[in-house]
């Protein structure tokens, strides 16, 4: 087939025996009822596929779905991949039960384009055609088909075919090609085996593209395979995209282990879950209440499983209402945010007996964790996801914000289900507009998270000053702990505050700009005496207990002043017991450099002898220099650290 492809999928919908399959055959020349039972009963049971040549010679696919109520499951399986619907209504019957139910399902599946084929016009008078057309306009009012063309046609005589075909081409022309962005994913429609090549899987990809040789994973089985050959619309191809009829030859799989409702995907970010969050909309036509935890049939992609609907806001729903829910599945499915679903259940108040379509919506999250009702943070997070679903940039930002912690590019790519080149392009855009910042480790954070952290820091320092006017300021570790989040984000936030002159770094603490500790003259005098004592003691500094005795001051007052001096970086705390004056630390660094000038390493004893102090003082001092990366401990010796190497050059 030499014509170019348009990755848009057409689909039929409508009540049983209204002429859907006959119309597809008239349109494509293909017989889509291929099962023996379908031929025997004259009834479409399963999905049928055919290529359709448009007026401009481009090729689109057509999926023919069953109209009988007993095969709604198969109808939903086909509808998940449809972009443009041919909504079929017979002129003799008019609007029937599955006419309404199929319209509901198409609406819930998010369709936006379509036309109506008014079939069997050869069986009725002109007056009947007009009457049914008027009924249809009333039914379709307020739906995505409200302004759709209604094209009368006879599948038997061909009357009206040109008008129908023209209308179809106009509708398809107004529908953009389906995006092939994101990782490749296809819900399995059918599977069969060919002698020699082996297993062939068919379906309509939901996202991405696939090429010959690409590795794919079958979920929920977790089996790995690769694409040996492929066809698109029945012709050999080297690439297949979202929205096309695809047949993939995967020789690693036995055809008995693949079935409809499974997923083939190209990312390890997708995993089967038994719990998923969603926004559920109840149809306007539903009668009675839909109770919390109702058991329902969940239709998503080509899968159908039993599920409990756990409501997260109220304990019941009525016609036309929406709310956040958690779907708790009887068996795992590889769902992703954005998947559309339909819920069918047996409601006693409904006119019909058995299962009926009661609502549907979109998957928002796959936490796989049981959620509790009426938690504001849960509901707001789900609402934010709903609003970002169709905007890759917003979704990317949201994933970063939700994480709270920095994410690697690889982890963010998995959260967004994008291909590497798509992630790179998106990050360039987000970095350029200042929405995403890169951290020294290579991780990514959202600028809003940095700003929120900065806000918490300013509040924390202000509160600390109010509660502790005699203290120099709030230490780094304590400040970062109060602000929460990753240390890298806190560092970035603190640096931005210092740069913006909202905070100052004084010694080892952070303060508001212009802040100074408010201490009494008596405390200041004691502070000066303690500072002088430490300075004169050099490396063999006294303990707080020793100073208390020497200065004839209560231990608590001495400890308080030592803490203040340490916060001001006048004293340096080596460990819980020992401090030294900052001048002594600088002298110790010079002594270390002199030792390294003599040889490449030195022992603790050599350092002790060089500075003339006991081991009790030498060991904590060396340990502190290790923390500063001035020295590096190697067994019993010390070698130059990063900071020392800079000075030794």
Describe this structure in words.
A hairpin with a 5-residue loop joins β27 and β28 (444-446). The chain contains 20 helices and 36 strands. The chain is α+β, with helices and mostly antiparallel strands and 649 residues long. It is 36% helix and 27% strand.
- Rg value: 36 Å
> Biggest sheet: strands side by side, in what order?
2-3-1-4-5-6
Q: Which structural category do the helix and sheet elements fall into?
A: alpha+beta
Low-confidence stretches: 32-47, 67-71
Counting DSSP E segments of at least 2 residues, the number of strands comes to 36
Terminal CA distance: 71 Å
Mean pLDDT: 88
- Report the major sheet: 6 strands, mixed
Number of helices: 20
Tag the structure with descriptive keywords.
alpha+beta; 36 strands; 36% helix; elongated
Give a quick rundown of the structure.
The protein is built from 20 helices and 36 strands.
Helix-strand blueprint:
Layout: E1 5-13, H1 20-28, H2 36-41, E2 48-53, E3 59-64, H3 72-79, E4 84-90, H4 97-108, E5 113-119, H5 126-140, E6 150-152, H6 161-173, E7 185-187, E8 190-194, E9 198-203, E10 205-207, E11 209-211, E12 215-219, E13 223-226, E14 229-232, E15 235-236, E16 239-241, E17 246-249, E18 263-265, E19 273-282, E20 290-291, E21 294-300, E22 303-311, E23 316-317, E24 322-333, E25 340-345, E26 356-365, H7 376-388, H8 392-403, H9 409-416, H10 420-432, E27 436-438, E28 444-446, H11 447-467, E29 474-475, H12 476-483, H13 487-499, E30 503-506, E31 509-512, H14 521-537, H15 544-551, H16 555-567, E32 571-573, E33 579-581, H17 582-598, E34 602-603, H18 604-611, H19 615-627, E35 631-634, E36 637-640, H20 642-648
Parallel strand pairs: 1-3, 1-4, 4-5, 5-6
Antiparallel strand pairs: 2-3, 7-10, 7-18, 8-9, 9-17, 11-16, 12-13, 12-18, 14-15, 14-17, 19-24, 19-26, 20-23, 21-22, 21-25, 22-24, 25-26, 27-28, 29-31, 30-31, 32-33, 34-36, 35-36
């Amino acid at each position: 087939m030499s014509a170019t492809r348009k990755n848009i999928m057409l689909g039929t919908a409508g009540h049983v025996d209204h002429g859907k399959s006959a119309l597809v055959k008239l349109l494509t020349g293909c017989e889509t009822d291929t099962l023996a039972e379908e031929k025997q009963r004259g009834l479409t049971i399963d999905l049928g596929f055919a290529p359709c040549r448009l007026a401009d010679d481009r090729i689109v696919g057509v999926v023919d779905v069953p109209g009988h109520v007993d095969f709604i499951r198969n109808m939903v399986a086909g509808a998940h991949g449809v972009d443009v619907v041919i909504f079929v209504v017979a002129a003799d019957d008019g609007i029937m039960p599955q006419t309404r139910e199929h319209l509901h399902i198409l609406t819930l599946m998010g369709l936006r384009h379509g036309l109506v084929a008014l079939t069997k016009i050869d069986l009725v008078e002109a007056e009947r055609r007009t009457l049914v057309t008027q009924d249809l306009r009333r039914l379709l009012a307020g739906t995505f088909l409200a302004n759709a063309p209604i094209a009368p046609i006879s599948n038997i005589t061909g009357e009206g075919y040109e008008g129908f075909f023209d209308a179809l081409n106009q509708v398809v022309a107004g529908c953009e090609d389906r995006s092939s962005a994101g990782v490749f994913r296809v819900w399995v429609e059918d599977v069969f085996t060919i002698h020699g090549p082996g297993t062939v899987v068919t379906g309509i990809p939901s996202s991405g593209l696939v090429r010959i040789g690409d590795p794919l994973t079958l979920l929920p089985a977790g089996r790995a395979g690769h694409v040996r050959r492929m066809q698109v619309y029945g012709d050999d191809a080297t690439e297949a995209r979202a929205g096309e009829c695809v047949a993939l030859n995967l020789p690693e799989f036995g055809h008995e282990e693949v079935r409809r409702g499974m997923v083939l995907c190209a990312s390890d970010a997708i995993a089967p879950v038994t719990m998923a969050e969603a926004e559920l909309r109840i149809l306007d036509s539903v009668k009675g209440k839909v109770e919390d935890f109702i058991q329902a049939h969940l239709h998503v992609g080509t899968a159908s499983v039993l599920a409990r609907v756990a409501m997260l806001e109220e304990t019941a729903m009525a016609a036309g209402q929406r709310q956040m829910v958690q779907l708790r599945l009887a068996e795992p499915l590889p769902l992703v945010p954005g998947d559309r679903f339909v819920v069918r259940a047996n409601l006693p108040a409904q006119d019909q007996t058995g299962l009926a379509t009661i609502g549907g919506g979109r998957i928002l999250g796959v936490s796989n964790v049981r959620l509790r009702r009426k938690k504001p943070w849960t509901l707001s997070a789900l609402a934010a996801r709903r609003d970002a679903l169709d905007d890759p940039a917003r979704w990317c930002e949201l994933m970063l914000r939700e994480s709270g912690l920095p994410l690697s590019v690889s982890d963010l790519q998995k959260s967004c289900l994008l291909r590497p080149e798509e992630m790179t392009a998106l990050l360039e855009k987000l970095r350029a507009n200042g929405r995403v910042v890169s951290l020294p480790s290579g991780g990514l954070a959202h600028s809003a998270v940095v700003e929120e952290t900065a806000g918490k820091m300013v509040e924390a320092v202000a509160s600390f000053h109010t509660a502790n006017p005699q203290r120099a300021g709030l230490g780094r570790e304590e400040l970062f702990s109060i602000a929460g989040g990753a240390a890298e984000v806190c560092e970035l936030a603190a640096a931005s505050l210092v740069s913006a002159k909202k905070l100052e770094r004084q010694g080892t603490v952070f303060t508001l700009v212009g802040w100074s500790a408010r201490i009494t003259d008596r405390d200041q005098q004691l502070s000066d005496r303690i500072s002088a004592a430490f300075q004169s003691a050099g490396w063999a500094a006294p303990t707080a207990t020793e100073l208390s005795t020497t200065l004839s001051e209560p231990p608590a007052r001495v400890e308080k002043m030592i803490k203040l001096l340490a916060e001001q970086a006048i004293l340096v705390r080596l460990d819980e017991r020992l401090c030294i004056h900052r001048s002594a630390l600088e002298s110790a660094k010079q002594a270390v450099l002199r030792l390294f000038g003599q040889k490449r390493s030195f022992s603790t004893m050599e350092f002790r002898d060089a500075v003339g102090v006991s081991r009790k003082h030498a060991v904590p001092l060396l340990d502190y220099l290790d923390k500063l990366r001035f020295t590096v401990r190697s067994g019993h010796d010390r070698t130059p650290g990063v900071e020392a190497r800079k000075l030794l050059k």
